[in-house]
Design brief:
alpha/beta, GMP Synthetase, Chain A, domain 3, Rossmann fold, 10 helices, globular, binds adenosine-5'-triphosphate, binds magnesium ion
């Protein structure tokens, strides 16, 4: 082994032991080091693969790598750290033929707390960061996602031939700025109420999930109707959800309902990824959801202030505009995307895996 190779080996050994600041395990254990190699100018390049494109403050990893190399291999030059990302996922939709790495439900106890807004923002933020994203509006009674993303049309039906010669019918999702979107809103007259019994709802949702040509996705975000457990139960029976994001406003009445919703997800064995406090500000107060999350031992995914621009962009069908550089809501919304993605990665990669306790 040349001295060059020996140095690279030594550098790799020392950076493998660095703890990832978000998930808390070593970069080596998490398989996050793609390569350590010499460049033509004699510099060392360390290629790190993040588990999500919305990994927060990745500079902490480059700083830790440079520091560890300076300390343990003082003869080696300071390394260049380059990042890429490959979303990790449980591929849990595989049993019903989906190629979706992570299915994430967005729910709440109370209605009107901003679930659809947060679901649309999660999809837009993850998309803006480069992930392959789908969004399914499972609120069959009040589908609002198509309006928020200014998407309309009728999903085209296509016939596909399987390898064993069978013909299956698939629906093409509507493209909403690169997000694959499916909603009951595309099938019903916007002014007509949908009156359905539980089994029909179950069937419609199953079809939406299974018969849509989602293709390969990193994240499929599902906007749930408020309250009831039947839709969540349907979903959890069909696929292994990566987890549920609970949206809540800071005031007491909303928190009580959120606690019930969390209990319901836990009963149907859907992991709760964490709680988002939406509409923080003078009207509803601040910090209630964070405190409740802490009490329940759940991650807090961040707060989104009550801001006229969020309501206005939603009404205009321009939710993606909230992610423009100068938008005041952007850092909050991006923070929610980051924390959600990190919790998904953590659930997947964390060891030892804690057994889920039954909520009595
Ligand atoms: N942080 C915020 N600041 C200002 N307005 C907001 C905020 N979040 C949501 N809104 C607005 O509040 C209203 C309700 O939001 P949204 O439709 O997302 O709630 P929901 O929980 O999905 O409601 P439903 O229970 O009816 O499905 C919308 O007009 C939306 O634009
Ligand atoms: Mg809604």
């Amino acid at each position: 082994m040349s001295s060059d190779e020996a140095t690279l080996k030594q550098v790799e050994e020392c950076i493998r032991r660095i703890r990832d600041p978000e998930i808390g395990r070593s970069l080596g254990d998490l398989n996050m080091i793609r390569s350590v190699r010499s460049q033509t100018d004699g510099q060392i390049e360390v290629a790190v693969e993040l588990p999500t494109p919305v990994y927060p403050n990745r500079e902490r990893i480059s700083a830790a790598i440079r520091e560890a190399v300076a300390e343990s291999c003082p003869e080696a030059p300071a390394p260049d750290v380059v990042f890429s990302s490959t979303v990790r996922g449980s591929e849990s939709g595989g049993t019903i033929g989906l190629q979706i790495k992570n299915v994430v439900a967005v729910g709440s106890g109370k209605g009107g707390v901003g679930k659809s807004t947060i679901a649309a923002c999660l999809a837009c933020g993850l998309k803006a960061a480069g992930a392959r994203v789908g969004l399914m509006d499972a609120d069959v009674y009040g589908p609002s996602i198509p309006h928020m993303l200014n998407a309309s049309g009728h999903p085209a039906a296509t016939e596909l031939k399987t390898t064993d010669g069978q013909t299956i019918n698939r629906m093409q999702p509507i493209d909403a700025g690169g997000i694959k979107l499916m909603s009951m809103g595309f099938f019903v007259d916007p002014d007509r109420a949908v009156v359905w019994r539980g089994p029909m709802l179950h069937k419609a949702l199953t079809q939406f999930l299974k018969d849509t040509e989602w293709g390969e996705l990193d994240y499929l975000i599902i906007d749930l109707p408020p309250g009831t457990g039947d839709v969540s139960l349907t979903l959890s029976q069909l696929i292994g959800l990566a987890g549920a994001v609970i949206v809540c406003t800071p005031q007491q009445v909303a928190l009580l309902d959120a606690v019930k919703a969390i209990d319901m997800y836990q009963q149907v064995k859907v992991p709760v990824l964490g709680v988002v406090e939406n509409m923080t500000g003078e009207v509803f107060g601040r910090g209630g959801a964070k405190k409740k999350a802490e009490e329940l031992g759940l991650p807090f995914l961040g707060e989104v202030p009550i801001e006229a621009c969020i309501r206005i962009r939603g009404d205009e069908g321009r939710i993606p505009a909230l992610f423009e550089e100068d938008n005041p809501a952007r850092p909050h919304l991006m923070g929610i995307c980051e924390q959600t993605a990190i919790q998904i990665a953590r659930q997947l990669l964390e060891t030892p895996k804690m057994p889920q306790l039954e909520v009595l």
